[in-house]
Design goal:
Elements (H helix, E strand, L loop, with lengths): L1 H4 L3 H9 L6 H11 L3 H8 L16 H8 L6 H24 L1
Helix pairs in contact: 3-4
Length: 100
């Protein structure tokens, strides 16, 4: 994934550990790579206010989506890492909102 996005593995590691967030350029690349709308990626990264979900999403859970769309590019370990990044971001935003 890092190579496809034109970033270093260290950068992805910082995202996964919560030490850094993707900049807007990286968010654009992540959106294109994943098929997730740019506004949603920017929101998840903290560059835009949270986007309220309107009913169930039109796409499957990430793991199912990744298996279907990127079967030859993403193995189970990478899918798990990406899910972990998503959950860390969600919990970090929740902790921030709770402290405010």
């Amino acid at each position: 994934m890092a190579a496809d996005l034109g970033i270093s593995h260290a950068t992805v590691s910082r995202w996964l550990t919560g030490k850094d967030i993707p900049n807007t350029k990286s968010c654009r690349r992540l959106a294109e790579y994943s098929g997730v709308p740019l506004e949603k990626v920017l929101s998840l990264a903290g560059h835009l206010p949270a986007i309220a979900e309107k009913g169930p999403p039109d796409w499957p859970e990430f793991r199912e989506y990744a298996r279907q769309k990127y079967a030859s590019e993403l193995d189970e370990d990478l899918i798990t890492m990406i899910e972990d990044l998503i959950e860390r971001r969600r919990s970090k935003k929740y902790d921030f909102k709770k402290d405010s």
